[in-house]
Amino acid sequence: MRLSFCLVCFVCLLIAQPVLAQTNPFLKRSSPAPQLQRQSEAAESSEHPDRLRAFKSRFQTMQYQLNQQLAVRTQAARDEQPPWIWLSLMLIAFAYGAFHTLGPGHGKCVVCSYFIAEDSHWRKGLLLGYLVAIVHALSAFGVVAVIYYLLKSSSQLLFDQATRLTSLVGYGLIAVLGAFLLLRQLRRWHSMPVAASGSGPANAAAHHHCEFHDCQHTHGHEAAPAQPRRDNIWLMALGIGVVPCPGALTILMFSISLDFLQLGIVLALMIALGMGLTTSLLAVLTILSRQGTLRWLSPPSHQQQNSRVEHALRLSGASLTLFFGLLFFWAAL
Amino acid sequence: MWLLCWSSPALAHPHVFIDYTVMLRHNAQAIQGFELHWVLDAMNSQLILDEFDSNHNRRLDAPEQQQVIALMRENMRDYDFFTLVQLDGHRLPIREAQNFWVSLNAQKRVVYELFLPCQIPLGPQPRQLQFEALDSTNYVAFMPTPQVFKTQGQGALRLQITRRPTKIYEPLGLTVARGS
């Protein structure tokens, strides 16, 4: 009962927060529904509590300062190229990637939903976090290669359209993976023996029965949860990371415009490493929280309850993965 | 779990940064509107230049400026020209932008200048006016310059700055009344 209540509140909190696709408003006209949403959000912006506004303000001002430093030092590196400029630029790019990813976006909620659904070792969290970041960077390289070098264009509209196209592909992939996880979990749920999934007198009777007879059947709760398949991790990384980060795209194009592509590649990779650090830390936190939640809600003496909690977590995680995939796909349309 | 709930768009990461200044234009009886001066960040300025500088002279000539303006003017209307104006707690709609101008400054950064008409009659009683440069999608972040606010006009105005923004996401607060 307590778990159900927590899960319902959690889902309601998620649904209550609006999610908007990140497109450059200078380049693209909005559709009417998001426009109305934006207007109401704009009107409410000044009503947020002062402490929250102050935090948001400091957070974005920090990104502004990092962005300024990146621009100034990149130009300095092109003009003078002392060795320490490169090192400071790489550190700033790394910090920029880490901070940049702290805000919503870059698939953190999808990664966390996945690790709620899948019982994993913390190393898997590190792996997925960095895989997403690397695919992000490679996607940015690919988009620049196609648009700038192949199509010989630097049109921001083309970059915007490429981002939109990759968003549709990536989020579609996430939705499909979420649906697969959900179906698999529903099949497991239905295939659980009745005695194991129920409680009360019927279950007590089943256990009592087995004390006196050599029962060959299992009660389901003895089965260990399966480890996530490796190809799921790769699919998830591809689905999330295929959308190129506009920040990495901007850095690359800025470097190209200064005839300094090699620095742009290095900086985009450092941004990706910073992004990977933030995403993987959050993934590890989710994995550890999941394990802690299981231990808290279902002590080892209550193996039957453990099974129910495990199933509920898997179901909610799979549902969230599917939900986010569909939501982001719709937002990208 | 709290981190998963952290999906408010106001925390989304901006990719474009603009240094802004606002000038309040008025006459003796009313506020006429707001003149905005936006300076785009160095990276995005370079991208704009790369895209629209068709003759590669590292300047935005008049035809090139017109292309930039044509692309942006209609799009910005959907976002209320990134401006939120409230009078005594009530939102005032911003319907159009006039005198929209694009140029490059000495640092090769793109400068946008535009006037947002917003007629606000003034009386002897002070009124609370709040101005905020804001992109509600948070793709663009507006940073106030040190001299963020100026006034220009005919006639006296009783004006007090109740809140001066120094960071992104901070509004400008004013108390305004007709001068004696």
Task: Describe what is shown at a glance.
The complex is a heterodimer of chains A (333) and B (180). Chain A is mainly α and 333 residues long.
Provide the descriptors you would attach to this structure in a database record.
heterodimer; A: 333 residues; mainly alpha; B: 180 residues; alpha+beta; Acetylcholine Binding Protein, Chain: A; five-stranded mixed beta sheet; five-stranded antiparallel beta sheet; 2 helices
Overview of the molecule:
The complex is a heterodimer of chains A (333) and B (180). With 333 residues, chain A is an all-alpha fold. Chain A has one domain (52-201, 227-332). Chain A has 13 helices and no strands. Chain A has helices spanning 2-16, 32-45, 50-79, 83-102, 108-117, 122-150, 156-191, 194-197, 201-212, 230-241, 246-257, 261-297, 303-332. The longest helix of chain A has 37 residues, at 261-297. The two termini of chain A are 38 Å apart. Chain B is an alpha+beta fold. Chain B has a single domain (11-178), classed as Acetylcholine Binding Protein, Chain: A (Distorted Sandwich), CATH 2.70.170. Chain B is built from 2 helices and 10 strands. In chain B, strands 5-6-2-1-8 form a 5-stranded mixed β-sheet. A 5-stranded antiparallel β-sheet of chain B has the order 4-3-7-10-9, with no helix packed on it. In chain B, strand 1 (16-26) and strand 2 form a beta hairpin. The longest helix of chain B is centred in the middle third of the chain and has 16 residues, at 62-77. Chains A and B meet through helix 1, helix 2, helix 3, helix 5 and helix 11 of A and helix 1, helix 2 and strand 8 of B.
Mean pLDDT across every amino acid position of chain A: 75
Sheet-strand content of chain A, in percent, reads under 5%
Mean pLDDT of chain B: 87
Number of extended strands of chain A = 0
| Chain pair sharing the greatest interface | A-B, 64 and 54 residues
Shape of chain A: elongated
CATH class of chain B: Mainly Beta
Estimate what percentage of residues of chain B fall within beta strands: over 45%
